Amino acid sequence: PGPAAGNPSHFMKGAIIQLATGELKRVEDLQTQDFVRSAELSGGLKIDSSMVVDIRASQQRPGLVTLHFTVGEQQSKVTIDVPPEHPFFVFGQGWSSYSPERTAQLYGLACHQMQVGDVCVSITLQRPPSPQKATAQPHHPQQR
Amino acid sequence: VPVFPWHSLVPFLAPTQSD
């Protein structure tokens, strides 16, 4: 597959992102608070943090970068291979990638240099509260 | 210009814990 295959067009500079508030923002203008508020409003989604703990060239898949993260309060270790231009959203900083030059070439998106210690926005599905703890629920006539 | 709902970005963000 060509190097551009699968580049998500969400990251193209100028792409319009609709927040959970209904507000429209260009992808390059997104801020940490936009993710936080949207996740809150969406219900069932929780903002989590994934810290970059190691960055290196992929051994198995040349051309890709292997990123090691520790995720959430449990500090779970997660490893992923991504193209060097793939942007991540760092808390309080904004878009960052292993290769800001490539990100700029392919997406036009300005990025910071991703570094070990960066804490990236990630979003998990929130576990539903246990039934015992459930308080008064609004009436759902069409519960499935 | 296409409009993407914000949650369509979620799969491209940093990984979450797999449990």
Provide a descriptive summary of the structure in words:
Chain A has two helices and nine strands; from the N terminus they run ββαβββββαββ. With 144 residues, chain A is mainly beta. In chain A, strands 5-4-3-9 form a four-stranded antiparallel sheet. In chain A, a hairpin with a 7-residue loop joins β3 and β4 (65-71). Chain A is globular. The termini of chain A are far apart. Chain B has 19 residues and is an all-beta fold. Chain B contains no helices and one strand. Chain B has one strand at residues 3-5. The N and C termini of chain B lie far apart (37 Å).
List keywords for this structure.
heterodimer, A: 144 residues, mainly beta, four-stranded antiparallel sheet, three-stranded mixed sheet, disordered N terminus, B: 19 residues
String of helices and strands of chain B: E
Backbone CA Rg of chain B: 11 Å
Order of helices and strands of chain A: EEHEEEEEHEE
What is the β-strand count of chain A? 9
The averaged pLDDT of chain B comes out at: 87
Q: What gap, in angstroms, lies between the N and C termini of chain A? A: 42 Å
Question: What is the rounded distance between the termini of chain B?
Answer: 37 Å
Provide the structure class of chain B: mainly beta
β-sheet strand percentage of chain A: 25-35%
Global outline of chain B: rod-shaped
* Oligomeric state, counting identical vs distinct chains: heterodimer
Sheet with most strands of chain A: 4 strands, antiparallel
Given as residue ranges, the uncertain stretches of chain A (5+ residues, pLDDT < 50) are 1-5
| Shape verdict of chain A | globular
Summarize the structure.
The complex is a heterodimer of chains A (144) and B (19). With 144 residues, chain A is mainly β. Chain A has helices at residues 32-42, 100-107, and strands at residues 16-18, 24-26, 45-57, 65-71, 76-82, 88-90, 94-97, 112-113, 119-125.
